[in-house]
Structures are given as structure tokens and as C-alpha cells.
Amino acid sequence: MRTFAVVGHLARTDGTFPLEDLPGSAGRMDLLCRCVRATLFLSHGLRRDAECRLLLLGPPDPPRIVRFSGERVRSLSPDERSAGSLMRKALSLPAGDLYRESTPGVEVRRGTLADLMDGGPWAVLDEDGDDLRNEGHPPPCFLLSDHRDFTTEEEDIVSGLPRYSVGPRALHADDAITLVQNELDRREAGWR
Amino acid sequence: MRTFAVVGHLARTDGTFPLEDLPGSAGRMDLLCRCVRATLFLSHGLRRDAECRLLLLGPPDPPRIVRFSGERVRSLSPDERSAGSLMRKALSLPAGDLYRESTPGVEVRRGTLADLMDGGPWAVLDEDGDDLRNEGHPPPCFLLSDHRDFTTEEEDIVSGLPRYSVGPRALHADDAITLVQNELDRREAGWR
User: Fold this and answer.
1) Do B44 and A77 touch (CB under 8 A)?
2) Is the C-alpha dihedral spanning A80, A86, A89, A93 positive or negative?
3) pTM value?
4) Which CATH architecture has domain A1-192?
């Protein structure tokens, strides 16, 4: 199972945000929706062995985690609005300390960065990390930040993890996920 | 100058489509909007040396070409709706046989696949092509299709061009652009 987890520092934590303004009033939810797409979609189908987890830290009631499972998700299209609509349904549920399914393959809970990183082993995607292409055995789980850097508190939590870069330019989180998926695809298929 | 050109076989050719339904009534305009993002955006800024051209072949009045210039575009955000809004403005103009600017850095004309491929040299991105990582001197211009294959007539036009693949799985056009941009970034920066 490949897992991508993204920290959304401003992302709205209730289901009232307008689908017409994912970047603004929803706190860069557009970026998180594209991360779902980059994690789960192939050209004509879904990556059934992949999962995208989103940590939402914006108002009004953080922290929330929403998890999209490629194995079980339904009614998800690649456009931002489609993932945004499922996010809104998930965030409309009262959230406890355990995952609860809002729509097929989409689950929500109250949870912190430590909860987000259940399972593993994990690596951090970081433009200053080692080139992922040179890593002989990349882990299956990758943590990314949104358009903001990790906070000092977040850096403390992930400080012991390996850090990888996907290239020489700083890219959007969804592009970084696409590049990691490609690198893992190539290894699975014997391409290098 | 890096150029990515995408054929949108169903994409609407007037400015009346709703921004709330880019995948459906706009003819997979969501995918084309993401191709604009993948071509032009870095994490915190634009790729000023890149250009995205879209060939629109859907109703009511094909063919149209819309061109986004990274050097000159303004008021473009990475979300699909932002590019869709600029597309709609471009397609609201009467189109002739020369490019006409609709908003800064966005131009529109009536034009065919041959017009789309002005300049060059070009290559085609194709899942059955040669691995781009193994190409010593990739060209600066890449042609892609949307979620549909090239038609027989289109294949005739591009038949002599080199064809490259970005990996073992069939991906969305925007993911393919992200992967080519990364490969070109790596070569420019001396990463391999």
C-alpha cells in the first residue's frame, strides 16, 4: 500500500465551504483535492493500492483527518470539485477519535499529525532532501506539506525520518506525489 | 522555451460553459485546466519559459486554439476554476486565423492541429514510446492527447515525430506534463 499524507495548514474543518472557492475560503482545499487525484488516479482507473490522508488544521474545529482509500472509494472523479464535494460530506459528520466512513472509501476522524502517521515506515518529501531516484529502497509512505513549510512543532515530530527530494525545483505537493508515484511505478515494472 | 500542446477532443469552443461543470458540459475542460497548471506552475511562482497550447475540438465551433504564456500571463491561480475562467474569456472572443489576446498572456485563434504545432521540434507523449529518461537530447515541444487517443487523421499528421513515454503506467495528461517538466528540470540542473 502506497500512502501519501498532506498537511493542510489552513484547510477548513467543517463542511460549509463553497465548492466555488476551494483556494480561498476553504484554505487551499484545491491543492489538497489535487493531491487526492495525484495519489489515486491512473489514466483510466484508480490506483487500488494507494491511500491519501489529509490533515486539516484550519478553522473552525481542527485538527481533522480525512482519508481516501483507492481500494474502496466510489463516485470520485479527477476534478478538484469532485474530491472537494466528498471532503465537504466528510467534514459535515461529527468527528471522534476513530475513523468513520462518510461516503464509500472516505473516512474522517479528529486527529493530529501523529495520528495521521499511523503505520509506515514514513519519509518526508522535502526539496532539500536526497534525490529519491538514488534511494535503493524507498519507503511506501510519504508525508508532504501544503504551500506552507512544516511548523517547528511538526518538524520535531518528523525529525528522525528520511527526507527525499523529487527534483531541483520546488513544486506543488500534487506534482511531488505524481513524481513519487512514477518512481515507484518504474521500480515495480523494472524500469529505471 | 518549453511548450506543451494538448488536444481536447470534446472541449467546448464557446465561452458559455459553467465553471461548476468543467468535466461534463465543458468537455473535460478540467483536464485541460490542469495541463495549464502542470505546464506553468512552480511551488511559488510561474515557469516564465513555458507555454501551454490547447486545441479545442468540441461544439459549437471547432477548431479553436488557446495559448497560455508563462512569461506574460497574469491573474492565473493553480486551481482548475482559475484557468477555466480565463479559457471562458478567451472563447468569448470572435476568433480569426491569427492569435488575439483575451487577457494578459492568454491568446485565442481558430486553428487546426497543424497550426497548434507551429515552431518545434516536437515529440509526442505516448505510453508506447521510448522511455524519455533514456533520450540524450529531448526536444523542447511535446504534444499530448486528452483522455481519448489521437484520431487516425491526427496520427497521420504526427506520424514522423519521435514518441516518448514517461513511465510504465498510463497517466493523465497533466501528470505526463509534470513528469516531462521534472526530467527537463533535472537535465538543466545537472541532476540525473
Assistant:
1) no
2) negative
3) 0.98
4) 3-Layer(aba) Sandwich (3.40)
